[in-house]
Amino acid sequence: MKIIGSFVSPYVRKVLACLVLKGLDYEIDPITPFFGDDTFERLSPLRRIPVLIDGDLTLCDSSVICAYLDEAYPGRALLPADPKDRARARWFEEFADTRLGDVFIWGLFYQRNVRPVVWGEPCDEARVEKSLSTDIPAALDYLERELPAAGFLFGDVGLADISLASFFRNAAYAGFEPDPARWPKTAAYVARVLAEPCFATLLPFEDVQRSVNPAGRRAALLEAGAPLTAETLGTRTPKRGVMAL
Fold it and tell me: Residue 233, Cβ neighbours under 10 Å: how many?
């Protein structure tokens, strides 16, 4: 299988963590969506990541990809067996991808880490302030009521836990971590999930991708042991997607 998408993307990280959890091998072309060529746009018409290529099948959207992996590759299940728990797990995945994606990625990480670097645009400080003062606290207040005081949401770590925790790593990259005095269950839960091997094994590759100049990034990732594809769909010039802000 091949994955197209950056190690630093929360949606790509989610898929990679699930692949690790299920013990599936993959190769990755670790491009950011803004630097994809015409072939990337053909594979991902919204110019978003991740993209999965498995033989003659190409899929976009992390939720679609994870559902396919769980159905096509039996073994370690990503979702709980009980129908009610499965429904709740899918809800937490949706909450993560939509609400946490909005407040942590578009409202914080994109503003502080992407706009200045990729587009040479100033950070929207008003949006960051709203995210930090209103939107993020409201999301974390909800999670504080729902998350377990110990362990994971549905027994062993699974898709719901992976989906939620992935966004907190990007929030940390943008300077935000949950206050353990205000959100003790959330802070402890996130730390537990991110410490799991399915996440911990990916962190060295994220560190390389964040710290190395793009010109030397592939060589550095290969040296770090990342399973890269032989070719890349990356370009030197960024291009906005149809749904980019």
Answer: 19
Indicate yes or no: pTM above 0.85. Answer: yes
Catalogue all structural domains in the chain, each as residue range(s) with its CATH number: 2-77+203-223 (3.40.30.10), 83-198 (1.20.1050.10)
Cβ 171 vs Cβ 109: under 8 Å: yes
Could you tell me if 8 and 19 are in contact, meaning their C-beta atoms sit under 8 angstroms apart?
no
CA atoms within 13 A on the CB side of 64: 10
* pLDDT tier at 242, thresholds 50, 70, 90: low
Matching residue, tokens 């073994």: 75
Nearest to 114 by CA among 2, 210, 212, 14: 210
- Looking at the DSSP bridge assignments, the partners of residue 53 are 2, 58
Length of the chain (residues): 245
